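Recap quiz, item 2
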Amino acid sequence: MKCSTEALQTFLDGELELAETEAVRSHLGGCPACRQELSRLRLLWLELEQEDEVEIPAALPFIRQQAITKARAAGQDKIGTSSVSLWNAQKLAWQPVLAGVSRIPGTRQLGLLARLAGHGLPGAIKGVSSMAGKIIGKRRDRH
Amino acid sequence: MNTDAEQNLIIRCREGDEGAWRLLLARYEIYVYRLCRQIGGSSEDAVDLTQEALVKVLTGLDSFQLGRPFKPWLRQVTVNACLNCLRRRAPETISLEQPVAEDIVLGDTIAGNTGDPAHAAEWRDARDVLRQAMSKLPYQQRLVLVMRHQEGLSYEEIAAATDLPLGTVKTYLYRARQQLRRKLAGVYGWE
C-alpha cells in the first residue's frame, strides 16, 4: 500500500473494510511519515469532536413563539383550503346564475311593469306572455 | 423525559395543542439552534435557520412515525430546512475552497498567501482558527463535517441525511478536513 492521506482519514473514521484496515495497519508499521500524519489527524479529530461552545441567543423564546405563530397560520391555511369541497365550489360557481334567475319577472309582472310604464307590451312578447300565462294557469287549475 | 411521555407530547402536538408545541420546542430548540449554527456558519444565519426549522418541525409532525426515536427525525427536518435556506442563498461565485490540484485549493494560489511576516496573523488558539476556517467552507462541506464529527453519523447515514451520493460525502469530508488540517499546520508550525 502507498502512503495515502485519504486512506488514513477513512481509517480514523472506522469506515474501511477489514482487509483495508489490515493493510493500513501494516503500512503504518513501516512508515514513520504516515504515523506522524495519523497523529496529526487525530489531533484534528479531537478538535472537531469537541462540542463547540455555542452562545445561545437570548431571543430563543421569541424565535419559538414566532415559529408557533407561523405554524398556526400554516395550519389554518391548510384547513381553509381543504374544507372547500366540490359541492361548495359548485355552489359558488352557480351563485351568480341563480341570483339572476330569481330576478327574471313572471308573465303577470311583465304586464304590470308595462302598464306602469304607460306602454303596452310589444306584440311578440305579449303573445309569448299570454301563452305562458295560459299554460301556467291551466297547471294551477289542475292542482 | 421518558419515551412514553415524549410520544404523548408528540400526540398532543399533532392534535394542535399549542401548550404541547411550546413544551416540545422548549425541549429541543437549543439542539436545533446549535445544529443550525454549525451548519449555517454564523450566528446571524443560525437565528433564521432555527426559526425555519422549528416551523418545519411543527408543521411536519404528521410525518413522524410514533414509536421511533424523535431526535433523528428532528435532525433530518433541521438539516432539510437548513439546506433549503442555504441553497436559496448560495451565491453564484467560485469558492476559494475549489480544488485545483491534489491538496491545493484555489485560495492557496492567490498572491498574498505567501507567508510574508507582514501578512502573518497573530498566533491564535487552534479552536478559534478551526472555527473560522469551518465558517468559510462551502456549506455542504460544513454540513458533512457536522454530521460526522458532532452527530457521529456513518458515511451512509450522512448520505441518507443530506441526500448526497456516498462518493460525494467522502469527497466533501476529505476536502474539508484537508483544508482544516492545513489551518492546523499553520497554528502548530507543521511543515
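Residues 45 and 51 of chain A are 12 Å apart (CA to CA).
The longest helix of chain A spans residues 60-82.
End of item.
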